[in-house]
Design goal:
single chain; alpha+beta; Ubiquitin-like (UB roll); DNA polymerase, domain 1; five-stranded mixed beta sheet; 8 helices; elongated
Length: 210
Amino acid sequence: MSKETRGSDPQGVSRRGFLKGVGAGSAAAGFIGVGENTAQAEGQDAPAIVGPGDGTYTLNIDGESKEVTAEPRATLLDVMRNRLDVTSAKKVCDRGTCGACTIFIDGEPAYACSMLALEAIGHKITTIASLGTPEMMSALQKAFVKHDAQQCGFCTPGFIVAATDLLNKNPNPTREQVRDGLGGNLCRCGTYVGVQEAVLEAAQSMKGGA
């Protein structure tokens, strides 16, 4: 079974394909927002494109407004990690393939490496940092630790975010549904069995209110 088919839903849209496409239609709106102040001061219509120099704008990340100055071509992942020191989303493949940089955009999973930071203006960005802390871990995070599903840790934040989305939408998944739901995330350490066990156990724990 191909990677695209493995994560597909009944409508025939793969999870990987959905994630890679998130935000593609909103880039122009983001560009306009950054450049409109200068244009309005000159009494002109806002330009459709800005750059190539840096622009300053604000992103909402984990409930905090963060002002950043970056080039229009900068990805959300690079801006978060290199400009804002938000390093919970990991940069591994940088090609929208491995899922290590999976975050939530307005509650829906997306690859941070596959969208421009400008596209995230006005949207709610949520990383694994908002899903639990070492002192107050979620049931899913506890299960990952118990089943040794983290290994090197580079893929773990993306898996946690993707698995959280899976359990939010399907609180009682089968093993096959877990495999399909996490089809857009890769683990180079090969801990897929541990990940599946963690998600299945977390589903049971969450039923009991844990």
